[in-house]
């Protein structure tokens, strides 16, 4: 029997919680590799498992992408040099998608360049709820086939279990796509607010005029929580209008700096995320949705 029938999954250090759960759901071998920095800061990589003629998967969510990019490419290229049949990146969180336009002369559209680099070292990509705003599909920038999964079922399932009378709220127009889907799966109402971003850490949120406080529990849903300002401003506005403490749900727990504590201290009820990025707020597991998709690919 060809060895390519036995895929192998390499799990990025620090991402073992989801990576190993995935491995065990799929009954795949976990790959061994060595990763360290030389004293001058360059990356040393050594693939220790046999990958020749096998389908290789590398599980690495791409928060802090600049530090991860070089060693990630070295692993993929090494696997290719060692004869891997195919190398797929599983990046439940895919970085750099928010830089999708040059707003000022000379500004880098880094989403495009990042996609170009990843497309040259990998054969395929699997991700969850990528931040597609001005791009309709990842195919606009990625030259390799990508499979886009959604966390909506898992989020809706969590809300059905944990929140009585939810009223879903998307804090900005981009979040409309996620909130509409989660609300429909939960059979609950939703509305979408308007956001004006005035700086990296400065946003203004406006609720639609018709919105007054109701009996329900507000559930804010967004794809990324980064500085937390989008959630914090939304929480403040809802509280001012007399709503109960909102449940804040983010798919990807980026949480820059002290954002998590700031959000928890801002009048939010619960702060909950999916486990695409390891974080204490992870309550929604994505291993099943990923495993189903990966199983179906083979
Ligand atoms: C962008 O529009 C995204 O959907 C999020 O709303 C945004 O990344 C959240 O960023 P922050 O937490 O820094 O407000």
N- and C-termini, Cα separation: 16 Å
What's the total number of strands?
16
Relative strand content: 25-35%
- CATH top level of the largest domain is Alpha Beta
Q: Which range best describes the helical content: under 10%, 10-25%, 25-40%, 40-55%, 55-70% or over 70%?
A: 25-40%
Principal-axis shape equals globular
Description:
44% of the residues are buried. The chain has 8 helices and 16 strands. 31% of the residues lie in helices and 26% in strands. It folds into 2 domains: 3-151 and 286-297, 3-Layer(aba) Sandwich (Rossmann fold); 152-275, Rossmann fold (3-Layer(aba) Sandwich). Helix 4 crosses helix 5. It has helices spanning 16-26, 65-81, 110-121, 152-162, 176-186, 229-240, 259-264, 287-297, and strands at 8-11, 29-30, 33-37, 43-47, 55-59, 86-91, 124-128, 146-149, 166-170, 190-192, 194-199, 202-206, 217-225, 247-253, 271-274, 282-284. It is globular. The mean pLDDT is 95. The protein starts with 7 loop residues before the first strand and ends with a helix. It is an alpha/beta fold and 298 residues long. A hairpin with a 5-residue loop joins strand 3 (33-37) and strand 4 (43-47). The strands form 4 sheets. Strands 2-1-5-6-7-8 form a 6-stranded parallel beta sheet, sandwiched between helices. It binds ribose-5-phosphate. Residues 131, 172, 174-175, 203, 222-230 line the site of ribose-5-phosphate.
């Amino acid at each position: 029997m060809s060895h390519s029938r036995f895929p192998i999954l390499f799990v990025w250090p620090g991402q073992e919680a989801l990576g190993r759960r995935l491995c065990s759901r799929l009954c795949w071998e976990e790959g061994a590799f060595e990763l360290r920095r030389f004293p001058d800061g360059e990356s040393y990589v050594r693939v220790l498992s046999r990958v020749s003629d096998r389908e290789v998967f590398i599980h690495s969510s791409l928060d802090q992408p600049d530090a991860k990019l070089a060693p990630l490419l070295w692993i993929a290229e090494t696997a290719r040099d060692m004869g891997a049949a195919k190398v797929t990146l599983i990046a439940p969180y895919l970085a750099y998608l928010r830089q999708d336009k040059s707003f000022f002369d000379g500004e880098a559209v880094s989403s495009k360049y990042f996609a170009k680099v990843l497309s040259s070292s990998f054969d395929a990509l699997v991700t969850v709820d990528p931040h597609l705003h001005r791009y309709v599909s990842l195919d606009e920038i990625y030259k390799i086939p990508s499979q886009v999964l959604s966390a909506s079922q898992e989020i809706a399932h969590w809300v059905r279990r944990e929140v009585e009378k939810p009223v879903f709220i998307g804090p900005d127009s981009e979040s409309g796509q996620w909130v509409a889907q989660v609300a429909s799966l939960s059979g609950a109402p939703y509305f979408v607010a308007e956001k004006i971003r005035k700086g990296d850490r400065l946003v203004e949120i406006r609720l639609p005029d018709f919105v007054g406080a109701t009996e329900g529990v507000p559930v804010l849903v967004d794809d990324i929580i980064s500085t937390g300002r989008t959630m914090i401003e939304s929480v403040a506005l809802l509280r001012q209008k007399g709503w109960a403490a909102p449940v804040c749900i983010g798919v990807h727990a980026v949480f820059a700096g002290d954002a998590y504590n700031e959000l928890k201290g801002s009048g939010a009820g619960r702060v909950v995320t999916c486990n695409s990025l390891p974080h204490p707020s992870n309550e929604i597991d994505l291993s099943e949705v990923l495993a189903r998709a990966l199983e179906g690919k083979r």
